[in-house]
Amino acid sequence: MKLKSNLKISTIMSIFLYSFCFLYFNNYVSADIYMFIDGEGGIHFTNVPTSSDYVLFVKERPDSYNLKINENRYDHIIKEASQRYDVPFSLLKAIIKVESGFNSKAVSRKGAVGLMQIMPENNKNLNVQDPYNPWENIMGGSCYFKKLLSKFEGKLPLALAAYNAGPTVVDKYKTIPPYEETENYVRKVMTYYYALKD
């Protein structure tokens, strides 16, 4: 599946600030990320630039991204979900990293549960009987995210924003909602995603 990654130019300074802090205080990015601003102000990211229009945005830090053993324990389930729903393995893993830190017992302040932080009202529609069960949670969350990717025509930032804030909010703004939590969420997942792709 081809994923489109573009953000509005109004968020460029906050993106830069977050990436700077993320790189130098957390040491997670391990792949060069390039940026290109198109004629309409859309910001595009890639780790494989296809033209000279792209400029280096995040510099690789070799050997700085070493997954802990507990972060690999659900890889077999993530791979199964990736194949079933045609969503990149590294993307699903990045979402789980940001959503729960690979803690299958995680519960948010809003009541979202498990690895992919599924809200209780969504369990039935996603065929999740036990949201604390890693397999059920990952399959349910992956199914939901696939629906969001399809709804937003493969535009990754919008699908991620919808996963965090809800599709209705994204429909309202026609872009990433101007919520600090959602903007940070999108940046974090995309940063982990590009780091894991290699």
How do the helices and strands line up, and which of them pair or pack?
Elements: E1 6-8, H1 12-26, E2 33-37, E3 42-46, E4 55-58, H2 75-85, H3 89-100, H4 134-151, H5 156-165, H6 167-173, H7 180-197
Helix pairs in contact: 2-4, 3-7, 4-5, 5-6, 5-7
Structure, described:
- It contains 7 helices and 4 strands; from the N terminus they run βαβββαααααα.
- It is globular.
- The longest helix is centred in the C-terminal third of the chain and has 18 residues, at 134-151.
- With 198 residues, the protein is an alpha+beta fold.
- Strands 1-3-2-4 form a 4-stranded antiparallel sheet, covered by helices on one side.
- It has helices spanning 12-26, 75-85, 89-100, 134-151, 156-165, 167-173, 180-197; strands at residues 6-8, 33-37, 42-46, 55-58.
How far apart the termini lie comes to: 17 Å
The percent range for helix content is 40-55%
Given helix and strand content, the structural type is alpha+beta
| Number of discrete helical segments | 7
Q: Strand-and-helix sequence, N→C? A: EHEEEHHHHHH
Mean pLDDT: 82
CA-based gyration radius: 16 Å
Widest sheet: strand order? 1-3-2-4
Strand content: 5-15%
Main β-sheet: number of strands, strand sense, barrel status? 4 strands, antiparallel
What sort of overall outline do the alpha carbons produce when their principal axes are compared? globular
By DSSP, the count of extended strands is 4
Low-pLDDT parts are 20-30, 61-67
Would you kindly provide a brief summary of this structure?
Helices cover 46% and strands 9% of the residues. By secondary structure, it is α+β, with helices and mostly antiparallel strands.
